[in-house]
Protein: Sarcosine oxidase subunit beta
Organism: Neogemmobacter tilapiae
Amino acid sequence: MSQQDTGPPMRYSGFNVIRQGLSGNKGWTPAWRDPAPKAEYDVVIIGGGGHGLSTAYYLAKNHGLTNIAVVEKGYLGGGNIGRNTTIVRANYFLPGNSEFYSHSLKLWEGLEADLNYNVMHSQRGLINLFHSDGQRDAFVRRGNAMINQGDDAILLDREGVRKHLPYLDFEQTRFPIYGGLLHPRGGSARHDAVAWGYARGADQRGVDLIQNCEVTGIDVSGGRVTGVQTTRGAIRAKKVAIIVAGRSSQVAAMAGMRLPIESHVLQAFVTEGLKPVIDHVVSFGMGHFYISQSDKGGLVFGGDLDFYASYAARGNLPMVEHVMEAGMTLMPMIGRAKVLRSWGGIMDMSPDGSPIIDKTGIEGLYLDCGWNYGGFKAVPASGWCMAHLVATDTPHEYAARFRLDRFRTGHLLDEEGTGSQHNLH
Protein backbone atom coordinates (compact mmCIF):
# COMPACT_ATOMS: atom_id res chain seq x y z
CA MET A 1 0.00 0.00 0.00
CA SER A 2 1.65 3.23 -1.12
CA GLN A 3 1.33 6.57 0.60
CA GLN A 4 -1.27 7.82 -1.86
CA ASP A 5 -3.39 4.66 -1.89
CA THR A 6 -5.67 5.81 0.91
CA GLY A 7 -8.59 8.16 0.58
CA PRO A 8 -9.98 10.41 3.27
CA PRO A 9 -10.09 8.67 6.66
CA MET A 10 -13.33 6.87 7.46
CA ARG A 11 -15.08 7.81 10.68
CA TYR A 12 -16.03 4.74 12.67
CA SER A 13 -19.63 4.59 13.84
CA GLY A 14 -22.45 2.16 14.43
CA PHE A 15 -24.01 3.29 11.16
CA ASN A 16 -20.83 2.48 9.22
CA VAL A 17 -20.57 -0.94 10.87
CA ILE A 18 -24.11 -1.78 9.73
CA ARG A 19 -23.58 -0.31 6.26
CA GLN A 20 -20.35 -2.22 5.70
CA GLY A 21 -21.87 -5.41 7.04
CA LEU A 22 -24.70 -5.16 4.53
CA SER A 23 -22.27 -4.50 1.66
CA GLY A 24 -19.88 -7.35 2.32
CA ASN A 25 -17.36 -5.26 4.30
CA LYS A 26 -15.71 -4.15 1.06
CA GLY A 27 -15.70 -0.43 1.77
CA TRP A 28 -13.35 -0.22 4.73
CA THR A 29 -10.29 1.95 4.14
CA PRO A 30 -6.84 1.16 5.64
CA ALA A 31 -6.44 2.43 9.20
CA TRP A 32 -3.16 4.16 8.34
CA ARG A 33 -0.78 4.70 5.44
CA ASP A 34 2.44 2.78 4.82
CA PRO A 35 4.78 5.55 3.63
CA ALA A 36 8.41 5.37 2.62
CA PRO A 37 10.66 7.43 4.91
CA LYS A 38 11.41 10.97 3.80
CA ALA A 39 14.93 12.37 3.86
CA GLU A 40 14.22 14.75 6.75
CA TYR A 41 11.68 15.36 9.52
CA ASP A 42 11.23 17.90 12.26
CA VAL A 43 10.89 15.06 14.79
CA VAL A 44 11.83 11.38 14.59
CA ILE A 45 10.35 9.15 17.29
CA ILE A 46 12.21 5.87 17.77
CA GLY A 47 9.70 3.24 18.87
CA GLY A 48 6.25 2.39 17.53
CA GLY A 49 4.72 1.19 20.80
CA GLY A 50 2.01 2.83 22.85
CA HIS A 51 4.21 5.60 24.25
CA GLY A 52 5.81 6.46 20.91
CA LEU A 53 2.50 6.52 19.07
CA SER A 54 0.75 8.58 21.73
CA THR A 55 3.65 11.06 21.68
CA ALA A 56 3.27 11.44 17.91
CA TYR A 57 -0.48 11.85 18.23
CA TYR A 58 -0.28 14.58 20.88
CA LEU A 59 2.55 16.36 19.07
CA ALA A 60 0.19 16.72 16.13
CA LYS A 61 -3.04 17.29 18.04
CA ASN A 62 -1.83 19.54 20.87
CA HIS A 63 1.12 21.29 19.24
CA GLY A 64 0.38 21.30 15.50
CA LEU A 65 3.56 19.45 14.52
CA THR A 66 2.97 17.11 11.59
CA ASN A 67 6.38 16.61 9.94
CA ILE A 68 7.00 13.65 12.22
CA ALA A 69 8.13 10.08 11.66
CA VAL A 70 7.64 7.14 14.02
CA VAL A 71 10.21 4.48 13.15
CA GLU A 72 9.63 0.94 14.38
CA LYS A 73 12.00 -1.98 13.82
CA GLY A 74 9.11 -4.46 13.62
CA TYR A 75 5.39 -3.79 13.38
CA LEU A 76 3.37 -1.22 15.28
CA GLY A 77 2.30 -2.51 18.68
CA GLY A 78 4.55 -5.57 18.56
CA GLY A 79 6.42 -4.84 21.78
CA ASN A 80 5.28 -4.29 25.35
CA ILE A 81 2.04 -2.56 24.31
CA GLY A 82 0.90 -5.98 23.04
CA ARG A 83 2.58 -7.94 25.88
CA ASN A 84 0.95 -6.80 29.10
CA THR A 85 -1.97 -7.52 31.40
CA THR A 86 -3.93 -4.42 30.27
CA ILE A 87 -4.52 -2.87 33.73
CA VAL A 88 -5.47 0.81 33.95
CA ARG A 89 -5.35 2.53 37.35
CA ALA A 90 -4.48 5.72 39.22
CA ASN A 91 -3.74 4.44 42.72
CA TYR A 92 -0.27 5.85 43.22
CA PHE A 93 0.92 7.39 46.47
CA LEU A 94 3.89 9.71 46.09
CA PRO A 95 3.66 13.29 44.79
CA GLY A 96 4.95 13.21 41.23
CA ASN A 97 3.54 9.80 40.42
CA SER A 98 0.11 10.54 41.89
CA GLU A 99 -0.79 13.55 39.73
CA PHE A 100 0.75 11.98 36.63
CA TYR A 101 -1.29 8.78 36.77
CA SER A 102 -4.38 10.74 37.79
CA HIS A 103 -4.01 12.77 34.60
CA SER A 104 -3.49 9.57 32.62
CA LEU A 105 -6.73 8.08 33.94
CA LYS A 106 -8.65 11.21 32.94
CA LEU A 107 -7.23 10.87 29.43
CA TRP A 108 -8.24 7.19 29.37
CA GLU A 109 -11.80 8.13 30.23
CA GLY A 110 -12.10 10.31 27.13
CA LEU A 111 -9.80 8.32 24.87
CA GLU A 112 -12.34 6.48 22.74
CA ALA A 113 -14.22 9.67 21.88
CA ASP A 114 -10.95 11.49 21.22
CA LEU A 115 -9.53 8.80 18.91
CA ASN A 116 -12.86 7.66 17.41
CA TYR A 117 -11.65 4.15 18.20
CA ASN A 118 -12.91 1.46 20.54
CA VAL A 119 -10.05 0.64 22.91
CA MET A 120 -12.44 -1.36 25.10
CA HIS A 121 -11.69 0.69 28.20
CA SER A 122 -13.61 -1.02 31.00
CA GLN A 123 -13.77 0.68 34.41
CA ARG A 124 -14.70 -2.50 36.23
CA GLY A 125 -12.90 -1.52 39.43
CA LEU A 126 -9.60 -2.64 40.90
CA ILE A 127 -9.22 -4.20 44.36
CA ASN A 128 -5.84 -4.41 46.10
CA LEU A 129 -6.01 -6.98 48.89
CA PHE A 130 -4.17 -6.60 52.19
CA HIS A 131 -3.22 -9.38 54.58
CA SER A 132 -1.94 -7.77 57.78
CA ASP A 133 -2.49 -4.80 60.06
CA GLY A 134 0.59 -3.13 58.60
CA GLN A 135 -0.66 -3.52 55.06
CA ARG A 136 -4.04 -2.12 56.10
CA ASP A 137 -2.36 0.98 57.49
CA ALA A 138 -0.36 1.40 54.28
CA PHE A 139 -3.47 1.14 52.11
CA VAL A 140 -5.35 3.61 54.32
CA ARG A 141 -2.56 6.10 53.66
CA ARG A 142 -2.58 5.31 49.95
CA GLY A 143 -6.36 5.64 49.75
CA ASN A 144 -6.28 9.02 51.48
CA ALA A 145 -3.56 10.19 49.08
CA MET A 146 -5.67 9.06 46.13
CA ILE A 147 -8.72 10.94 47.43
CA ASN A 148 -6.64 14.06 48.08
CA GLN A 149 -5.45 13.86 44.48
CA GLY A 150 -9.08 13.79 43.29
CA ASP A 151 -9.29 10.10 42.51
CA ASP A 152 -11.50 7.51 44.18
CA ALA A 153 -10.71 4.96 46.87
CA ILE A 154 -12.92 2.86 49.16
CA LEU A 155 -11.54 0.85 52.08
CA LEU A 156 -13.16 -2.58 52.33
CA ASP A 157 -13.11 -4.84 55.35
CA ARG A 158 -13.05 -8.62 55.06
CA GLU A 159 -16.80 -8.90 54.49
CA GLY A 160 -16.69 -6.04 52.02
CA VAL A 161 -14.16 -7.97 49.98
CA ARG A 162 -16.25 -11.13 50.26
CA LYS A 163 -19.25 -9.26 48.85
CA HIS A 164 -17.28 -8.25 45.74
CA LEU A 165 -15.05 -11.33 45.40
CA PRO A 166 -16.87 -14.32 46.90
CA TYR A 167 -14.71 -16.82 44.99
CA LEU A 168 -11.50 -16.07 46.94
CA ASP A 169 -10.16 -18.44 49.58
CA PHE A 170 -11.09 -16.66 52.81
CA GLU A 171 -10.12 -19.62 54.99
CA GLN A 172 -6.41 -19.72 54.19
CA THR A 173 -4.14 -19.14 57.19
CA ARG A 174 -0.88 -18.29 55.43
CA PHE A 175 -2.15 -15.07 53.80
CA PRO A 176 -5.47 -14.28 55.51
CA ILE A 177 -7.54 -11.65 53.73
CA TYR A 178 -7.99 -8.68 56.07
CA GLY A 179 -9.64 -6.43 53.50
CA GLY A 180 -8.93 -4.46 50.35
CA LEU A 181 -8.68 -1.04 48.77
CA LEU A 182 -11.24 -0.59 45.99
CA HIS A 183 -10.41 1.82 43.17
CA PRO A 184 -13.75 1.95 41.28
CA ARG A 185 -12.42 3.90 38.28
CA GLY A 186 -9.63 1.39 37.72
CA GLY A 187 -10.01 -1.40 35.21
CA SER A 188 -8.56 -2.57 31.93
CA ALA A 189 -8.39 -1.84 28.20
CA ARG A 190 -7.57 -3.73 25.01
CA HIS A 191 -3.79 -3.31 24.72
CA ASP A 192 -3.26 -3.60 20.98
CA ALA A 193 -6.38 -1.53 20.23
CA VAL A 194 -4.72 1.33 22.12
CA ALA A 195 -1.74 1.14 19.76
CA TRP A 196 -4.01 0.96 16.70
CA GLY A 197 -6.15 3.87 17.86
CA TYR A 198 -3.17 6.16 18.44
CA ALA A 199 -1.55 5.03 15.17
CA ARG A 200 -4.70 5.83 13.21
CA GLY A 201 -5.10 9.19 14.94
CA ALA A 202 -1.47 10.17 14.32
CA ASP A 203 -1.63 9.09 10.68
CA GLN A 204 -4.78 11.15 10.09
CA ARG A 205 -2.84 14.21 11.27
CA GLY A 206 0.01 13.64 8.83
CA VAL A 207 2.49 11.60 10.90
CA ASP A 208 4.47 9.01 8.94
CA LEU A 209 4.40 5.58 10.60
CA ILE A 210 7.38 3.65 9.22
CA GLN A 211 7.44 -0.05 10.07
CA ASN A 212 10.26 -2.56 9.56
CA CYS A 213 12.75 0.27 9.96
CA GLU A 214 15.34 -0.46 12.66
CA VAL A 215 17.48 2.38 13.96
CA THR A 216 21.15 1.40 13.80
CA GLY A 217 22.74 4.70 14.81
CA ILE A 218 22.05 8.18 16.14
CA ASP A 219 23.91 11.03 14.44
CA VAL A 220 25.34 13.71 16.74
CA SER A 221 27.41 16.68 15.65
CA GLY A 222 28.69 19.48 17.86
CA GLY A 223 26.65 18.27 20.83
CA ARG A 224 23.42 18.28 18.84
CA VAL A 225 21.43 15.45 17.29
CA THR A 226 21.17 15.63 13.51
CA GLY A 227 19.34 12.45 12.59
CA VAL A 228 19.30 8.66 12.70
CA GLN A 229 20.73 5.81 10.68
CA THR A 230 18.24 3.06 9.83
CA THR A 231 17.99 -0.15 7.86
CA ARG A 232 16.03 1.90 5.31
CA GLY A 233 18.60 4.65 5.02
CA ALA A 234 19.64 7.80 6.85
CA ILE A 235 16.96 10.20 8.10
CA ARG A 236 17.83 13.75 9.10
CA ALA A 237 15.93 15.24 12.02
CA LYS A 238 15.92 18.39 14.12
CA LYS A 239 14.78 16.43 17.16
CA VAL A 240 14.88 12.74 18.09
CA ALA A 241 12.91 11.02 20.86
CA ILE A 242 13.98 7.63 22.25
CA ILE A 243 10.84 5.77 23.39
CA VAL A 244 11.76 2.09 23.21
CA ALA A 245 11.00 0.60 26.66
CA GLY A 246 13.27 -2.38 27.38
CA ARG A 247 15.64 -1.42 24.57
CA SER A 248 16.29 2.06 26.02
CA SER A 249 19.84 1.33 27.17
CA GLN A 250 20.83 -0.14 23.80
CA VAL A 251 19.42 2.72 21.74
CA ALA A 252 20.77 5.42 24.05
CA ALA A 253 24.21 3.81 23.76
CA MET A 254 24.12 4.70 20.05
CA ALA A 255 24.36 8.34 21.16
CA GLY A 256 27.11 7.59 23.68
CA MET A 257 24.79 7.59 26.69
CA ARG A 258 24.74 5.14 29.60
CA LEU A 259 21.33 5.03 31.28
CA PRO A 260 20.45 3.95 34.86
CA ILE A 261 18.17 1.27 33.41
CA GLU A 262 18.14 -2.52 33.64
CA SER A 263 16.03 -4.67 31.32
CA HIS A 264 14.14 -7.56 32.91
CA VAL A 265 11.53 -10.04 31.70
CA LEU A 266 7.97 -9.92 32.99
CA GLN A 267 5.82 -12.92 32.13
CA ALA A 268 2.06 -12.98 31.78
CA PHE A 269 -0.46 -15.72 31.06
CA VAL A 270 -3.95 -16.23 29.65
CA THR A 271 -6.28 -19.20 30.01
CA GLU A 272 -8.94 -20.69 27.81
CA GLY A 273 -12.16 -18.72 27.53
CA LEU A 274 -14.48 -19.21 30.52
CA LYS A 275 -17.90 -17.96 31.49
CA PRO A 276 -17.79 -14.55 33.23
CA VAL A 277 -16.67 -14.98 36.82
CA ILE A 278 -14.12 -12.24 37.63
CA ASP A 279 -15.67 -8.83 37.11
CA HIS A 280 -12.88 -6.77 38.75
CA VAL A 281 -9.13 -6.50 38.50
CA VAL A 282 -7.76 -8.20 41.62
CA SER A 283 -4.28 -7.72 43.08
CA PHE A 284 -2.95 -10.16 45.68
CA GLY A 285 -0.64 -8.14 47.93
CA MET A 286 1.32 -10.96 49.55
CA GLY A 287 1.95 -12.88 46.36
CA HIS A 288 2.29 -10.02 43.86
CA PHE A 289 -0.32 -11.74 41.72
CA TYR A 290 -2.87 -9.84 39.65
CA ILE A 291 -5.73 -11.15 37.57
CA SER A 292 -8.69 -10.05 35.47
CA GLN A 293 -10.93 -11.63 32.87
CA SER A 294 -10.87 -10.51 29.26
CA ASP A 295 -13.89 -9.83 27.08
CA LYS A 296 -13.25 -13.18 25.39
CA GLY A 297 -13.40 -14.98 28.74
CA GLY A 298 -9.72 -15.72 29.24
CA LEU A 299 -8.23 -15.19 32.69
CA VAL A 300 -5.31 -12.79 32.23
CA PHE A 301 -2.78 -12.83 35.05
CA GLY A 302 0.84 -12.22 36.01
CA GLY A 303 3.20 -11.70 38.90
CA ASP A 304 6.78 -10.70 39.59
CA LEU A 305 9.67 -10.11 37.23
CA ASP A 306 11.93 -13.06 36.50
CA PHE A 307 14.56 -11.25 38.65
CA TYR A 308 17.47 -11.51 36.24
CA ALA A 309 18.41 -9.05 33.52
CA SER A 310 17.57 -10.21 30.00
CA TYR A 311 16.60 -8.98 26.55
CA ALA A 312 14.80 -12.23 25.72
CA ALA A 313 11.04 -11.90 25.38
CA ARG A 314 10.48 -15.18 27.20
CA GLY A 315 10.78 -16.26 30.79
CA ASN A 316 11.88 -19.12 33.02
CA LEU A 317 9.84 -21.99 34.42
CA PRO A 318 10.49 -21.28 38.13
CA MET A 319 8.66 -17.96 37.76
CA VAL A 320 5.80 -19.74 35.98
CA GLU A 321 5.54 -22.01 39.02
CA HIS A 322 5.68 -19.04 41.40
CA VAL A 323 2.86 -17.20 39.63
CA MET A 324 0.70 -20.33 39.50
CA GLU A 325 1.28 -20.93 43.23
CA ALA A 326 0.17 -17.38 44.05
CA GLY A 327 -2.95 -17.80 41.94
CA MET A 328 -3.84 -21.09 43.58
CA THR A 329 -3.31 -19.59 47.04
CA LEU A 330 -5.64 -16.71 46.30
CA MET A 331 -8.33 -18.64 44.42
CA PRO A 332 -7.98 -22.42 44.21
CA MET A 333 -10.62 -22.56 41.48
CA ILE A 334 -8.03 -21.23 39.00
CA GLY A 335 -6.40 -24.67 39.06
CA ARG A 336 -9.14 -26.02 36.78
CA ALA A 337 -8.40 -23.50 34.02
CA LYS A 338 -6.17 -24.52 31.11
CA VAL A 339 -3.41 -22.03 30.28
CA LEU A 340 -3.44 -21.28 26.55
CA ARG A 341 -0.28 -19.21 26.24
CA SER A 342 2.28 -17.08 28.01
CA TRP A 343 4.53 -14.26 26.90
CA GLY A 344 7.31 -12.06 28.19
CA GLY A 345 7.70 -8.30 27.94
CA ILE A 346 11.10 -6.62 28.27
CA MET A 347 10.70 -4.18 31.15
CA ASP A 348 12.88 -1.08 31.47
CA MET A 349 13.48 -0.97 35.22
CA SER A 350 14.74 2.24 36.82
CA PRO A 351 16.50 2.31 40.21
CA ASP A 352 13.55 3.93 42.00
CA GLY A 353 10.67 2.32 40.12
CA SER A 354 9.52 5.59 38.53
CA PRO A 355 9.85 6.73 34.91
CA ILE A 356 12.12 9.18 33.11
CA ILE A 357 10.72 11.88 30.78
CA ASP A 358 13.48 14.39 30.13
CA LYS A 359 15.91 16.07 27.78
CA THR A 360 19.34 14.51 27.56
CA GLY A 361 22.70 16.25 27.57
CA ILE A 362 22.62 16.17 23.76
CA GLU A 363 20.61 19.04 22.30
CA GLY A 364 17.51 17.84 20.49
CA LEU A 365 17.62 14.32 21.98
CA TYR A 366 14.83 13.32 24.38
CA LEU A 367 14.20 10.27 26.53
CA ASP A 368 11.04 8.50 27.70
CA CYS A 369 11.76 5.26 29.59
CA GLY A 370 11.95 3.50 32.96
CA TRP A 371 8.26 2.53 33.19
CA ASN A 372 8.79 -0.62 35.24
CA TYR A 373 5.33 -2.16 35.82
CA GLY A 374 3.49 1.10 35.03
CA GLY A 375 3.90 1.40 31.27
CA PHE A 376 0.49 0.47 29.90
CA LYS A 377 -1.62 2.59 32.22
CA ALA A 378 0.70 5.53 31.54
CA VAL A 379 0.38 5.50 27.74
CA PRO A 380 -1.90 8.56 27.38
CA ALA A 381 -0.14 10.80 29.93
CA SER A 382 3.30 9.69 28.80
CA GLY A 383 2.54 10.75 25.24
CA TRP A 384 0.88 13.97 26.45
CA CYS A 385 3.87 14.99 28.61
CA MET A 386 6.55 13.79 26.20
CA ALA A 387 4.92 15.71 23.35
CA HIS A 388 4.91 18.85 25.51
CA LEU A 389 8.61 18.37 26.30
CA VAL A 390 9.63 17.79 22.68
CA ALA A 391 7.53 20.68 21.36
CA THR A 392 8.38 23.29 24.00
CA ASP A 393 11.70 22.09 25.49
CA THR A 394 10.14 22.47 28.94
CA PRO A 395 8.82 19.64 31.14
CA HIS A 396 5.09 19.31 31.59
CA GLU A 397 3.92 20.01 35.15
CA TYR A 398 2.66 16.43 35.55
CA ALA A 399 6.08 15.00 34.63
CA ALA A 400 8.24 17.63 36.33
CA ARG A 401 9.68 15.11 38.82
CA PHE A 402 10.64 12.53 36.20
CA ARG A 403 14.02 14.16 35.64
CA LEU A 404 17.00 12.08 34.59
CA ASP A 405 19.31 13.85 37.04
CA ARG A 406 17.35 12.72 40.12
CA PHE A 407 19.59 9.66 40.33
CA ARG A 408 22.55 12.02 40.75
CA THR A 409 20.88 14.50 43.11
CA GLY A 410 18.99 11.95 45.23
CA HIS A 411 15.49 13.35 44.55
CA LEU A 412 14.09 9.87 43.96
CA LEU A 413 10.49 8.67 43.61
CA ASP A 414 10.71 5.34 45.40
CA GLU A 415 7.01 4.45 45.08
CA GLU A 416 7.42 0.91 46.37
CA GLY A 417 9.86 1.79 49.15
CA THR A 418 12.22 -1.00 48.12
CA GLY A 419 15.41 0.97 47.63
CA SER A 420 17.66 1.28 44.61
CA GLN A 421 17.73 -2.30 43.32
CA HIS A 422 16.16 -2.30 39.86
CA ASN A 423 14.56 -5.72 39.95
CA LEU A 424 12.73 -5.07 43.23
CA HIS A 425 10.50 -2.47 41.60
User: Anything to note?
Assistant: The first helix runs from residue 14 to 22.
